[in-house]
Amino acid sequence: MRRRRILFLVVAAGLLVVQTGCWSSKEIEDLSMYVGLALDAGRPAALEQQLEKQGGSYPKRNLMTATVQIVPMKTSGGGKQQAGEGKGPEFLNTSETGDSLFEIMRQYSLRRQRAVIGHHLKVIVISTELVQKQNLDKLLEFVLRDNDIRPSCIVLLSQGLARDTFEAGQSGEIPAFKLKDLLRGHFRTGKILKEVNLTRLDSLLGSKRSFILQEVVAGDGETEFSGAGIIKGETGRWIGSLDQTDVESISWIKGEVQGGAIKSYDWRNEPITYEVESMKSNITSRVRDNRLSFHVKVESEGRIIENWDVLENPSKPEYQEKVKKIFEKRLSQMLKTTLEKIQSKYKVDAAGFGDRVKIQHPKYWRKVEDHWDEVFSQTPVTFDIQFTITDYGSSTK
């Protein structure tokens, strides 16, 4: 009997220890988790200026303004409260200006009861104005070092103020989550780039090679992907932008199109549209007499998904052959226009041609990798485009 009591006490004590294993847990409502970070050129907000006039200042240079989007929103503390109409998730946008991102994060503690934490940071948006002035590697130095921030966090550029992309949109919608979710549309259109997270960005910056990042614009609480910004490898700074069609063209060159459309006009100037079902691209590099050239072969299968010319019958093979050539010509024009832009205007390899040289001609690559953008801008590129129309939809009417 005594042994049973002792055994019971031991088991009870053990269960008590297990049950107290979460005594340091914190309710999510008591945390200030920021899910979005926007970086703009340094312009202190009205609230910051007001606080500084009253003594709320410290030694700094106003190089950048950091805006964090905090969820769940707490009404206490400084910042601009935003929420959708009616019930729904609430969030808080609050900004601070300085010249050290880590110091800015600590400054938030002077205005909020709870320190902001970045364990659930989903997206970083940086204005092209700021990246034009400051090296991207420097701007993200703290972010890339911080163990709290997950490497899966994605990075975008913005035309206009980055913090505007965090404005309230539809009811119950958290802007930072929306931006990340928009990237899921990559399988529907080639105008959306494959996401670049912190791990991938760190690798790109370390390579000192030029690359592109998805750009976003904002207006009236809405956001839209608007093309891509070019980051020069040598400087780590933004040098210009590509439009949506350019991004789509680069996706075709790199073989990253998973869906989308090619629109053109037939011989009666009526709109016709090709829906992409599948595609593949092969970039071949050739070195002869120490001279480099590229050939890009693009193949795709798809359907005639829209045809405004009521006088034509899409089911006829001769019609399909004619419109196939129209679509091939349209894509060829797109690719050549984009190539001209990146080779002649910006003089950078924004389409990954260097990767093929590195694999196919490693000895030659070692000679040119330090000045690859210059070499690429003078390298001829040819295209071979072949479309196959598999069907014309469920109706010819």
From TrEMBL:
Give the way it sits in the membrane: Lipid-anchor
Which Gene Ontology BP annotations are present? Answer: spore germination
UniProt cross-references to InterPro entries, sorted A to Z? GerAC_N, Spore_GerAC-like, Spore_GerAC-like_C, Spore_GerAC_C_sf
Q: What is its main location?
A: membrane
**Gene Ontology CC terms:** membrane
Tagged with keyword Signal: yes
Keyword Membrane belongs to the record: yes
Protein localization: Membrane
The UniProt record lists the Spore germination protein N-terminal domain at 25-214
**What family name appears in the similarity comment?**
Belongs to the GerABKC lipoprotein family.
Would you tell me the protein name for this molecule? Ger(X)C family spore germination protein
Q: Which organism is it from?
A: Paenibacillus macerans (Bacillus macerans)
